[in-house]
Automatic annotation (TrEMBL):
Lineage of the species this protein comes from: Eukaryota, Viridiplantae, Chlorophyta, core chlorophytes, Trebouxiophyceae
Keyword Oxidoreductase on entry: yes
Keywords carried by this UniProt record: Oxidoreductase, Thiamine pyrophosphate
Protein's recorded name: Dehydrogenase E1 component domain-containing protein
Organism: Coccomyxa subellipsoidea
Ranges of residues in domain Dehydrogenase E1 component: 1-294
Length: 325
């Protein structure tokens, strides 16, 4: 969780230095969700989610360099510098993104559940989405198919209380999202408590394998604005944000637990945190040294090899683009 937090703060800084451009959605405050979930499942289980994907990517075994290079548009990025912040993937660890269009990945998550069932591999699809996305029609289509076929899908709502600048209360008739599955059971989870997330995820995985879909509503909070261009303080008060930090911060909760039970002393934790800080800083520098993708990548991953598309070279003022072999 400390690595996740550091990555988000480093990305914020790089954006302000104008080194990262375009979209950037940060998830600091929400770290307990990926941390707790990954503690209960394996990389053979699948995860798919929307654009707020950096912390999930780290949970899936992605490196800081892969994220930072992607955000900087460099070739060593998770998507070879072609996708940016919203499009992190890790196919080998069953992380299917990183999807920018709100809600569209939810039926895909049900489809991934169908793949797990079809292959009889004993694994499940964790399909993550926000409280804003939870009101979309396609969610209910995905619920219907998943329940009809008893698909092993854990519909996991990261309720961070806001969809852009709109609070869940202003956008949803019923804000108890875990109750909105009708024929699908749901569980409310303290999404700021990594251990609660772990227990709930372990339970949900077993349930999904034995009985079909289940909903987990993770009650969480994002500290940053919706995206980097949103100061995040016009639709909520700074006192509210500070109040959550003081009372529910996921990292501080674990720190208190470790200290109160003498699992670690504060010196050890400080040392660990400064090691992580140095590691993140080092990987940021490595990412900066990564070159931009070659121009031929404009085409390389668009058409399947041998598909026979004829492409016309275009002069972009930076020399002629090489056609893919
Ligand atoms: C189909 C579609 N409509 C609108 C948008 C613009 N948009 C981007 S994020 C967002 C809010 C989504 O909120 P939520 O699902 O709660 O996720 P969170 O940002 O809180 O993680 C909207 C409306 C979009 N990307 N796609």
């Amino acid at each position: 969780m400390v690595t996740m937090r550091r990555v988000e703060l480093a990305a914020d800084l790089l954006y302000k230095q104008k080194l990262i451009r375009g979209f950037l959605h940060l998830a600091d405050g929400q770290e307990a969700v990926p941390a707790g979930m990954e503690a209960a499942i394996s990389f053979k289980d699948s995860i798919i989610q929307s654009y707020r994907d950096h912390t999930t990517f780290i949970g899936r075994g992605g490196t800081v360099k892969e994220i930072m290079a992607e955000l900087l548009g460099r070739v060593d990025g998770a998507s070879k510098g072609l996708g940016g912040s919203m499009h992190l993937y890790k196919k080998e660890n069953n992380f299917y993104g990183g999807i920018g269009i709100v809600g569209t990945h939810i039926p895909l998550g049900a489809g991934i559940g169908l793949a797990h069932m079809y292959r009889k591999d004993g694994h499940v699809s964790f399909t993550l989405y926000g409280d804003g996305a939870a009101n979309q029609g396609q969610v209910y289509e995905a619920y219907n198919m998943a329940a009809l076929w008893d698909l092993p899908v854990v519909f996991t709502i990261e309720n961070n209380q806001f969809g852009m600048g709109t609070s869940a209360r202003r956008a949803s008739k019923i804000t108890e999202f875990y109750t909105r599955g009708d024929y699908i059971p749901g569980v409310w989870v303290d999404g700021m408590d990594a251990l609660a997330v772990k227990s709930a995820s372990a339970f949900a995985k077993q349930h999904a394998l034995q009985h079909g879909p289940i909903i987990l509503e993770m009650d969480t909070y994002r500290y940053h604005g919706h995206s980097i261009s949103d100061p995040g303080s016009t639709y909520r008060t700074r006192d509210e944000i500070q109040g959550v930090r003081r009372a529910r911060d996921p990292i501080e909760q674990i720190r208190t637990l470790l200290l109160e039970n003498s699992f670690a002393d504060s010196g050890e934790l400080k040392k660990l945190e400064s090691q992580i800080k140095a590691q993140v800083a080092e990987e940021v520098e490595e990412a900066k040294r990564s070159p931009p993708p070659p121009l031929c990548y404009l085409w390389k991953f668009v058409y399947k090899k041998g598909w026979g598309a004829k492409l016309r070279p275009v002069e972009l003022g930076r020399g002629w683009i090489q056609l893919p072999p």
